[in-house]
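Practice problem 4.
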């Protein structure tokens, strides 16, 4: 019997999938518990529309990430830090500080976990960082650490 799953069912499939299961399993377990509904034309159409909406949403997210990447690519963000003698910093510059500098300068909010620093920033100078905006979309930025 073909059914459309309303929730994830271990061993059967994921939510909004069309699966073929045994008649008894569908009639006695899945349908009474609200885990699935019979695969009628209306149910199939609903699944198709949800899948199309999901694809459209993914495409919009990818396009927004690409626009943001083009805005950020190659920009230099200045971070002021205190340091001791010999060009060394007290502590280090973290991804959180880089994210704050990006937001302050461009207004683009970036999660600190999405910023990959080449190496720990423990002295003054210019460093390269990668901002991962979406799977497959990365923007390269520069971080200038000054006194």
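Answer key:
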């Amino acid at each position: 019997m073909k059914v459309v799953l309303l929730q994830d069912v271990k061993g059967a499939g994921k939510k909004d999938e069309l699966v073929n299961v045994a008649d008894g399993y569908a009639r006695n377990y899945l349908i009474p518990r609200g885990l699935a509904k019979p695969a009628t034309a209306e149910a199939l159409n609903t699944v198709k529309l949800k899948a199309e909406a999901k694809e459209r949403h993914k495409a919009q997210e990818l396009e927004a990430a690409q626009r943001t990447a083009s805005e950020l690519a190659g920009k230099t963000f200045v971070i002021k830090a205190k340091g001791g003698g010999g060009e060394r910093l007290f502590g280090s510059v973290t991804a959180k500080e880089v994210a704050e500098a990006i937001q302050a300068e461009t207004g683009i909010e970036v999660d600190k976990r999405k910023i990959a620093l080449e190496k720990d920033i423990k002295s003054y100078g210019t460093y390269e960082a990668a901002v991962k905006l979406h799977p497959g979309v990365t923007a390269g930025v520069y971080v200038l650490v000054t006194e």
